[in-house]
Amino acid sequence: MKILFDHQIFFQNKYGGISKIFFEIFKRLNDKKIEYSCSVDLSNYSEGFIFEKKTKRQLNRVSFFSLYSFYKIVIALLLRFRFPFSDFLLNKDSGVQRFSLSKQIKYLNEEVNCAILNNEYTVFHPTYYHRYFLPLLKRSNTKLVLTIHDCVHELFPEFYGSNNFILRNREILSVAADKIVCVSHSTKADFLRLYSHIPEEKVSVIYNAGDLSKEPIETPSFANKEFLLFVGNRGEYKNFIFLLKAFSLIAKEKNLYLVCAGGKKFSSHEKNEIKKMNLEKQVVHVSFSSETTLANLYRNAKLFIYPSLYEGFGIPLLEAMSVGCPVFCSQINVFKEVAGDAAAYFDPLNHFALSELLVEILNSTEKLNSLRVKGFARVQNFSWEKCADSYLKIYEDLSKV
After folding, report:
1. The dihedral of CA 255, 247, 16, 67: what is its sign?
2. N or C: which end of the chain has fewer CB within 10 A?
3. pLDDT at residue 47, as a whole number
4. Backbone Cα Rg of the chain
């Protein structure tokens, strides 16, 4: 059994999220001394560097004369002189960067295609949804494993555009795949409803995990203030403006801060909303580059809030629980599947109800402690070892076919 992984997700986003799943699989393959290869050297990925495996040259360094450099200069000038521009322009950051790295990515695509055509690996597990490899895969004995992390592009196409490459490719890849993994039963149900012609027996569920309990204890920013925590991107379905509205009703009275960890800096639209609600001094954005920093933000927060309208799983729920941070989340099916009775749930369309629930539980040490205790128990049902071992079982089964 030999497994091949490609480079896609590592150019798509920084460390964390989907890439975290693949790093955990790599770790388990190393522990079991199972032969595998990734098309790039990720030894310094957490610092933001991707290297070519043979020459060790950096692959994600953008030329000064590239479209991406020009794009960044334009954005900086617009911000510097406070010219109005659409947030849509900011959302093109990763796409423009990827376009500017197209030569490096094409080189890697050819490396993967060569390995597939030569039948060097029994299983290929692409890390995202480009389909550059499909023509040659059809001429190979290599089996294809595909992971479906969510169906947000299908369910909220208005946020991504009808020409989004994931919408174009996901169905084609799913038909070609020998095995499909969904990260929750809720995601599996959505996927099979959307793609009813995909045989259910081809689809398995493997849960993610989210354990930060072994991260060292440090003092983070805002440790001397009482704050609520929001983690990750703040795209439309993440429901961030809804959270601002709920927070604005209690922020002054409770002398609370809302710390937004990760994701991009506040957009002009978000800044306007924050200003409109008179929250400039109480809503702050914090970048983080390590799981240690994130773990200590969770540890020091009064509670973690996850107001999404939709998710495929919800790793931050378990990350918060693993270090004793009480969890508030929207009452969507997947959050109930993951968090069980260890979270306080709210209607993600009623910010008044959320503000009332926040006041009720923030005023009760007993209820906050109850959520902590239930969280510690709930997180034991999930582990990265179990997740990675389940993938290994799929690889082994396909390698025998």
Report:
1. negative
2. C
3. 82
4. 22
